[in-house]
Amino acid sequence: MVGLGPKRKPSRKGSMADMPGSMVEEIKRLEQLFTVDTQKLKAITDHFISELDKGLSKEGGSIPMNPTWCMGFPTGYETGTFLALDMGGTNLRVCEINLPEEKGEFDIIQSKYRMPEELKTGNADELWGYVADCLQQFIEYHHEGEKLDKLPLGFTFSYPATQEYIDHGVLQRWTKGFDIDGVEGKDVVPPFEAALEERGVPIKLTALINDTTGTLIASAYTDSEMKIGCIFGTGCNAAYMETCGNVGKLAHMNLDPDAEIAINCEWGAFDNEHKILPRTPYDVIIDKDSPRPGQQAFEKMIAGLYLGELFRLVLVDLHEQGHVKMFEGQDISALKKPYSLDASFLSQVEEDAFENLAQTHDLFEKELNITPKRPELELIRRLAELIGTRSARLSACGVAAICKKKGYKTAHVGADGSVFNKYPHFKVRGAQALKEILDWESGRDGKPLKEGTYPIEIMPAEDGSGVGAALIAALTLKRVQEGNTVGIKDWEGMLKGTAAAKGDNKQVGGK
């Protein structure tokens, strides 16, 4: 590379030296647009709490707050063998999880199968037939020659679905590139079970779950301080345990008011009414041009799917505003393609440790055929920081809202997803926002606040769509065996032939 000066590897601080005044002013404008101060974070959190309550009420609200019929946390002493199925957009994952006698332990074997693109727009019979074929292959490979009773299955079905029972779910709408006619608005379980039956696959679907609920339960299995499960990835969501007495929409069922039920918040829909979130003109464009304008307002400001697009829209806008002279005289046609940049692009910009931002320079040349000048690189870097920081800080509002609503003074929060796991500084920025919202002055040990002592900590989650799904199947089976069948439709079918799950002398579901 020529003309960008010497490279230095240590951490860098952005330089405004030799930057045109118009660009300095533009950075200040962007900082005002994308910065969310403490006061605003607190206001958002308070509104979030009222919206969570509204979602639980009989009347409902923007945030769906779906009861999952997963009742209570695991004890850590669940035992037996369970299958888990995770149907994602790219792969199908099948796991067999053995829960031994040791508290919080598990053994897992798993296989991945590619989800053929043509199946996503084919017909329902082909889809469920393929899924059943993969399960059959898995069992034949790992249990060759064995005579099996029906193995209980936890199915992670991470598409918006309404559930009146834990073992059934009505698909609201397809996402992740699926568009199969005749499935939306219908229960997905009967055709899936019919495909298993047709092939003689020894499996009984015991729980249909969302990956966020699985994240909560899997994390709580190994950590008794775990109170919330979150996904910060392509989309965003959270699940937590609510007492039935606080769920107005279930009042007609006369459940034990002190019993606990996991709530799948689907909180990407927070503030669809645009009352509190500090939207920029770029957020407005993203919403207007999306397939479903007016929906998922919170998700569109914090989730991985949209971070790169926000970044792209700002840069195109700056290029088209003649006074800033951004990428002046260059062909930006590659940058003009919607959703051509994803969150990993921003990650690479934020991870560039060279003083002269040489890696960012190379990234723009390679991916976009744009050669940025030094002042432009500084603006690019600051913009990435602003968008990434806003995402982390707004994400913390949802976590803080649940903690304040439930009165949690200390808690662990299990988080999964590509943004949480891979986006630089996301964890630290989120923790700082929690500290500001909840007014922490000292750590959980009563000593001065330092990382590792925060009263509420967001940490990497256990495998929700594998271990979590299996655990929820175990908890459901345990409830059936204890005679508690609330929220379970085919409990009689579950009682038949679960010997395979019991092991030789094990009580399925716990001691």
From TrEMBL:
Keyword ATP-binding: yes
Stretch list, region Disordered: 1-20
Keyword match tRNA-binding: no
GO annotation, biological process: D-glucose import; fructose import across plasma membrane; fructose metabolic process; glucose metabolic process; glycolytic process; intracellular glucose homeostasis; mannose metabolic process
UniProt GO molecular function: ATP binding; D-glucose binding; fructokinase activity; glucokinase activity; mannokinase activity
Biased composition (Basic residues): 1-12
Catalytic activity entry: D-fructose + ATP = D-fructose 6-phosphate + ADP + H(+); a D-hexose + ATP = a D-hexose 6-phosphate + ADP + H(+)
Annotated Hexokinase N-terminal domain residues: 27-221
Keywords assigned: Allosteric enzyme, ATP-binding, Glycolysis, Kinase, Nucleotide-binding, Transferase
Database matches in Pfam families: Hexokinase_1, Hexokinase_2
Matches recorded under InterPro entries: ATPase_NBD (IPR043129), Hexokinase (IPR001312), Hexokinase_BS (IPR019807), Hexokinase_C (IPR022673), Hexokinase_N (IPR022672)
Residues annotated as transmembrane: none
GO cellular component terms, semicolon-separated: cytosol; mitochondrion
SUPFAM superfamilies in the cross-refs: Actin-like ATPase domain
Gene3D superfamilies: 1.10.287.1250, 3.30.420.40, 3.40.367.20
EC top class, as a word: transferase
Pathway stated in the Swiss-Prot or TrEMBL entry: Carbohydrate metabolism; hexose metabolism; Carbohydrate degradation; glycolysis; D-glyceraldehyde 3-phosphate and glycerone phosphate from D-glucose: step 1/4
Family of the protein in this entry: Belongs to the hexokinase family.
Protein name: Phosphotransferase
Organism expressing this protein natively: Cryoendolithus antarcticus
